[in-house]
Amino acid sequence: MVAMCVGGELREKNRQPLDGSHAHELKGVLKDAGVKLTELSTHLQGQLVAAHPAYDIAFDGFAAPSVRCNPKARQEWAVNQLLFAAKASRNLGLTAHVTFSGALAWPFMYPWPQRPAGLVETAFDELARRWRPILDAFDEAGVDLCYEIHPGEDLHDGMTFEMFLDRVGGHKRCNMLYDPSHYVLQQLDYLEHIDIYHERIRMFHVKDAEFNPTGRQGVYSGYQPWANRAGRFRSLGDGQVDFGAIFSKLTQHGFDGWAVLEWECCIKDSEQGAAEGAPFIDHHIIKAATRAFDDFAASGVDLATNRKLLGIG
């Protein structure tokens, strides 16, 4: 596990994916600068793969100008962007890619007014139908597609991820980006989450958060700005996330990806947050043990000796 403070964005050239020559050029530039590219991101494009009409105006700015105010064309553009991202990731030698799932059912997240029977199931059926060809494209490219489990997306917790995973047939490229800050804000057990889903966790964003409910607000925070919310993102080390326990669990389960610093804080300046965050991550990285701590003699296994010890030799 290695700390990295710089993420990557998909580069377009005439709306084409990074081909071999462009990828080689980019890797050369990064190498000269001493920078390692950890992942490409299509959060905004992924959001547009499935956008409820309630968010048409809010999300239109995420798309290319030529497809704005045209939801069908906008979705087709977003899908093509994901297909480009699969090829670009392969050409850059990356093994995982991060995105958002988009959301068709999110406006109906709270069960009031009562949801019609089958509404959520229909939404997830359609979400899986849209994503299955994209997952297949990432499989062909040899890249894991990691959905950031995030409020505002239909995949916002473990239950919704399982609902989606079941509908895409347990697709091996359908994986998670783990970010504990989003779990603190919705009061989900972020440590047990690792135990449950570690086989699907392929990315890790290191971001802190805190949740301080009062007599006036809780999880929903009454439409308040970030600085006044009960749940808010904080710079690394300033929040409530137990990163010692997180790094221990990820190491225990054999996570071998990057620990990527994602900075968001409503109080601290970003430059200070970055300067403090990288050493913070470095301090928490664990070198996995190569042998059992109590095997001080490294005596190995001897079946005959074991049988004698048990009195059955």
Summarize the structure in words.
By secondary structure, the protein is of the alpha/beta class. It has one domain: Alpha-Beta Barrel (TIM Barrel). Helices cover 40% and strands 11% of the residues. The protein contains 11 helices and 9 strands. The protein has helices at residues 20-33, 43-49, 56-60, 71-91, 119-141, 158-167, 180-184, 190-197, 243-252, 270-284, 303-309, and strands spanning 3-4, 41-42, 96-99, 144-148, 174-178, 201-206, 208-211, 231-234, 259-261. The strands form 2 sheets. The protein has a 7-stranded parallel β-sheet. A two-stranded antiparallel ribbon has the order 7-8. Helix 6 links the parallel strand 4 (144-148) and strand 5 (174-178). The chain is globular, with a radius of gyration of 22 Å.
Secondary-structure blueprint of this entry?
Blueprint: E1 3-4, H1 20-33, E2 41-42, H2 43-49, H3 56-60, H4 71-91, E3 96-99, H5 119-141, E4 144-148, H6 158-167, E5 174-178, H7 180-184, H8 190-197, E6 201-206, E7 208-211, E8 231-234, H9 243-252, E9 259-261, H10 270-284, H11 303-309
Parallel strand pairs: 1-9, 2-3, 3-4, 4-5, 5-6, 6-9
Antiparallel strand pairs: 7-8
Helix pairs in contact: 2-4, 4-5, 5-6, 8-9
Which value, in Å, is the CA radius of gyration? 22 Å
According to DSSP, the number of beta strands is: 9
SSE succession:
EHEHHHEHEHEHHEEEHEHH
Strand portion: 5-15%
How many helices in DSSP terms? 11
Going by CATH, the architecture would be Alpha-Beta Barrel
Percent helix range: 25-40%
Report the sheet with the most strands, covering strand number, pairing sense and barrel closure: 7 strands, parallel
Q: Span between N and C termini?
A: 45 Å
The number of distinct structural domains comes to 1
